[in-house]
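We read letters as residues; the fold follows as tokens. A sample entry reads:
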Amino acid sequence: MKTTIQHIGNYKGEKVRIGGWIANKRSSGKIAFLQLRDGTGYIQGVIVKSEVDEKLFQTAKNLPQESAVYVEGTVQEDERSPSGYELQVSSLEVIHESTDYPITPKEHGTEFLMDHRHLWIRSKKQHAILRIRNEIINATYEFFRKEGFIKVDPPILTGSSAEGTTNLFHTKYFDEDAYLSQSGQLYMEAAAMAFNRVFSFGPTFRAEKSKTRRHLIEFWMIEPEMAFVDHNESLVIQEQYVTHVVQSVLEKCQLELKALGRNTSILEKIQAPFPRITYDKAVEMLQKEGHEITWGEDFGAPHETAIAEKFDKPVFITHYPLEIKAFYMKPDPDRENVALCADLIAPEGYGEIIGGSQRIDDLELMKQRYKEHNLSEEAYRWYLELRQYGSVPHSGFGLGLERTVAWIAGVEHVRETIPFPRLLNRLYP
């Protein structure tokens, strides 16, 4: 029976055939142990010299790392194995014998590994991280489908910017200027006026010359927008969404979390509702701890970390000063110098994973914002018209996928949370 390692538990005591690669191996005089991977998981293949012919045993002992093989054998329970099973190998067919595989079971420098990212993603840790990423994506679709959202795909090439063009990649669109999108939000607002609850999931680009462990040049965003939803309702949806994602990973990625050495007791605490503090309170807390920050300044990574350390769940920081937030955020009617907005800060020093707000729905106020931010009425005319034809209260948010993967997986740097990261001075491979 041909199967995969992922489903091998369905064939206990039976003979199966698996295609895979040799991740590692060791042998004694009488037994060879092959660490097999097939993309769905890892399993140990045991070859007993007395039970197979001499040629097969010698072939298994001498196979180089990452050689491709077909193996046949009987599935047996093994409590010591992470998967709970091992394979008693009875035959082996070499598909391709690898030579001089560069990533050996020893320490390698980060730059070397990044140069060989196309091979590094085969390793156990990287494999686990990217499978967790996949589960977060699956859980995202599951949550929004259940909550009545539909997926809408905004353009990647745009003629304008959501938050200014200084940090965008410029290109020529025939005889016009165009930019790689830094957010699909404005287009998602248009979609919400047509479909009520929508979300997008796609790549976004920021031309910031940043080298921090939280930043990528190309990254993926989940951006929901919701008609007839105010700021507080949006916060409830955000915390329910993050809770669903974390609990899905806990349920379906136990082997991957174990491979990463992740402390899952921390993740088990992630249940809605999440604590909320105002920007005012956050500044007060930071000042009491000796941080140099004054009201009106945005928070940096050390500030976010210091705030998050006070909580064992993600924390919403709400009502930022209007002047440091985007032009489309709705002012608080009770205090017009702050916005109806929030950032969600992850625990353990992973920083902001969500930014969101209630959007301005008043036509005249939006016209005023255009003037204050020197926005081109010609380029943004369509966005203004959303307030002209049937405007309603609406809210939305954006979740950065890579930062969320880093937090849930317990990974230090976001470069390991995307298959082929685009970083400052790195466009290869």
In short: DSSP finds 13 helices and 18 strands in the chain. The chain has two domains: 5-96, 117-416. The CA atoms of residues 190 and 386 lie 7 Å apart. The mean pLDDT is 95.
